[in-house]
Amino acid sequence: MLQRMIGAAMLRRGTYEEVEADTSATKQAMLVVVLVSVASGIGNVGVGGVPALVFGLLAALAGWSFWAWITYFVGTKILPTSETHANWGQLARTLGYAQTPGLFKVFGFLPGIGPFIFFFATIWQLIAAIIAIRQALDYTSTRRAIAVAVIGFIGYAVVTGIVMAIFVSPIMSR
What's the predicted TM-score (pTM) here? Predict the structure, then answer.
């Protein structure tokens, strides 16, 4: 698992292909998401304490699952190529491992440099996710993977915003 995390963080296409093909790696990908969520929570330690950390963990798992579904849907139904053959699990595994650079968010609490590290890790995660999408959907074009990521993110943001407005805002305003 550690070698795969390093390969994913180093943006190695072969690592994403390996993870995509290994159906037993879904739980490992979920563990990566959990580790990154905890690292992000520690990096944001001053923004809500333990309740925010617990909520962040649950939101990260739900978000990862939904992000895998929406990228699967967009990539296989809206923007497929003749070579596109994928299922939800392949997207879940590759996108889970693509979160690996987020481990650096643990340093987000550092005065001065922390926000820059957090931002850099987020951009790194985005690039890794685009590579994960490209490999899982068997695309030859990175542009198509970017399009899937953008279209998928719009859907993800809309649904997440609705969920936050309905469920989270009333709880947090108490």
Answer: 0.87
Q: Where exactly are the structural domains of the chain?
A: 2-172
Residue range 54-58: average pLDDT? 73
Distance (Å, rounded) from C-alpha 154 to C-alpha 48?
A: 26
CB 7 within 8 A of CB 131: no
List pLDDT tens digits, range 19-37. Answer: 999 999 999 999 999 898 8
Which residue's structure tokens are 């407005």?
165
